[in-house]
Structure formats: structure tokens, C-alpha cells
Design goal:
The protein is α/β, with parallel strands linked by helices. The chain has 7 helices and 11 strands. Helix 2 crosses helix 3 and helix 6 (259-276) crosses helix 7.
């Protein structure tokens, strides 16, 4: 029962606010921040959005996480080049210890000694690249965990089986494990590697998706694969009258509805945060041993230290 509660909204009221660049003390990039309204000291998650996907499309997902007692910082970083995104994300990470408090109410205190890095799609790859030391400037913060939400390393051309990893190449360059020494959670989707139609590419192509990130992750690492759901099914129920919102429904193969996948992704992230940010492993262990606790069907696996 306790484990299944992570898949529901938590008990804390959540506030979501936008923070823009306006002066020298502002964040390096515009941010969407979700946080509990209740007074307290909270761990922090830096969440990187997918390629050309607005950070605002993750409002319900990050609110779910915050309702369980975490501050989530989601910068808006859109560049054609992944390296530019990695560099900007690192700048935001380095800003957090000194800058985040000013963006929050005085009674909501960020504990950046409990800092977790997460990302969806290409943002997931950017997160791994940051911890591999591939940002343009060194990280001055330490992360206690890493989460990849259906991470993708490259693309496939529609209609043919030509695939290519976009630089920096961290999947196809060698077969060695990632030199990342923090616990890792990988959330994959069954339908992500399937094309929507003959003219659309799969947006998480086999050989460049969550499977390879999990294979190259060191212990301890966890993998949960959502059966019957697609690459963007953890996004908000965006209006199909909005052009970008409509595209998120049109370009990827999707499950029946997004709400169960959002609850599942949010719950898995909360269970992981509780385990490795707060030292409470019961929920994560319970879900690993009984994936049917989740709202949707999951395949579960883990690489754990003996």
C-alpha cells in the first residue's frame, strides 16, 4: 500500500512558477519551478526537457514529484546542437546553490546537497553527458542520482534502417560502461521504438534508446519499461488546438491516454528519489519486486551491488 501511494499525488500542496532572465542574479536560462507550498527543507531535481518540447508540457509530471516533497527545476533550453544544451544545463546546475533560494519563498528552502539530475528524450542524453564531464565548463555541484526518462541518443531516418547517434557520441563510441558513479533510474517505453507511420521516424529508435543507457549504467541501476505506452506519453494532456501540442500526439506512437503513464513515471521517480536522496528504499524495492503496484504494466530490472 505504501509503495502504491507514490503513484498518487502526494499530500503537499504544490505551486508552479516561471522565472525569467531579468538581471545578473537571474538564472542562466528561463525556468519552470514546482515546489511544495508548505514550509520545509526539500531536495532538488534538475529536469531537462526533450528536444523542441516546451518545459511547460511537463507541468503535471513535475507537480506530481513536488507533491511528495521535492523542488523540481525545469529550464527551457532549446538549441539545434546538443552540446549547447549540455553547456547551458551545466550553467543552470552551477547556479542552483547560490541562486535558487531567491526564486522561492523564504520558508521553502532548497537542499542542494540532495540534488538529482533527470531528463526526458534528448534531455535524458544531455543529463548523462553532463555527468560524463562533457559540458563546456566543469560542474561545481554534485548529484546524488541520475534519471533518464526514455532517453534517446540519436535518430533513425523514416522508411530505412539508417540510424545515427548525434554528438557527443556516448553510446556507439565504445562498449565500456559509463564512468558515472551515482545510482541510475531508466524509464523506457515499449512503443517509443515504433514508428507512427511510414513517413514518421521512431522517436526512440532501437539501438539508441533506453536499453543502451541501462546496459552502460553501473550498479546500482534500475530499469522500468512501460508496456503499451510511447515516447511522449508522460507529457501533459496538451490541447490539440495548440500546434506544438498537436504535434506531440501526431508524431509519436502513443498509448490510450497519458494520465496513467504520467502517474507511473512520476511515481517511479519519487520512489527513486526517496531511496537515494532520503535513504528510504522501501517503495523502490517493493515496486521492483512487484511491478503490478504501478498503474500500468511494467517490465522491471535492476543491477545491484552484491
Amino acid at each position: 500500500m505504501a509503495a502504491s501511494s507514490v503513484f498518487e499525488m502526494g499530500k503537499l500542496e504544490v505551486h508552479v512558477k516561471s522565472v525569467n532572465q531579468s538581471n545578473s542574479s537571474s538564472p542562466p536560462k528561463s525556468l519552470l519551478i514546482s515546489y511544495p507550498s508548505q514550509k520545509g527543507d526539500y531536495g532538488v531535481v534538475l529536469f531537462l526537457h526533450g528536444f523542441l518540447i516546451s518545459n511547460s508540457f511537463y507541468k503535471e509530471l513535475i507537480s506530481h514529484i513536488s507533491s511528495h516533497g521535492y523542488i523540481v527545476v525545469a529550464p527551457r533550453i532549446i538549441y539545434p546542437c546538443l552540446q549547447d544544451e549540455i553547456n547551458s544545463a551545466a550553467q543552470v546546475a552551477n547556479w542552483l546553490p547560490e541562486g535558487l533560494q531567491a526564486a522561492l519563498p523564504p520558508n521553502v528552502q532548497p537542499n542542494t546537497s540532495k540534488l538529482t539530475l533527470a531528463g526526458h528524450s534528448r534531455g535524458g542524453k544531455a543529463a548523462f553527458c553532463m555527468l560524463l564531464g562533457l559540458a563546456g565548463s566543469p560542474l561545481t555541484v554534485q548529484f546524488s542520482g541520475l534519471i533518464g526518462v526514455d532517453p534517446v541518443a540519436g535518430f533513425q531516418i523514416p522508411g530505412i534502417n539508417y540510424k545515427m547517434e548525434i554528438p557527443p557520441k556516448i553510446i556507439t563510441n565504445n562498449s565500456k560502461p559509463f564512468d558515472i558513479n551515482v545510482p541510475t533510474l531508466i524509464i523506457g517505453t515499449e512503443l517509443g521504438e515504433e514508428a507512427k507511420g511510414c513517413l514518421a521516424p521512431p522517436y526512440a529508435p532501437a539501438g539508441l534508446n533506453y536499453e543502451q543507457f541501462y546496459e552502460k549504467s553501473k550498479e546500482p541501476s534500475y530499469q522500468f519499461v512501460a508496456k503499451g505506452y510511447g515516447h511522449v506519453d508522460m507529457l501533459d494532456d496538451i490541447s490539440k488546438n495548440d500546434l506544438m501540442g498537436k504535434l506531440t500526439y501526431c508524431v509519436c506512437k502513443n498509448g490510450k491516454e497519458r494520465e496513467p503513464m504520467r502517474r507511473t513515471a512520476g511515481g517511479l521517480m519519487v520512489a527513486f528519489l526517496k531511496a537515494f536522496s532520503d535513504g528510504q528504499r522501501d517503495d523502490l524495492d517493493a515496486i521492483l519486486n512487484d511491478p503490478e503496484l504501478a498503474p500500468i504494466q511494467l517490465d522491471a530490472g535492476a543491477k545491484l551491488s552484491s
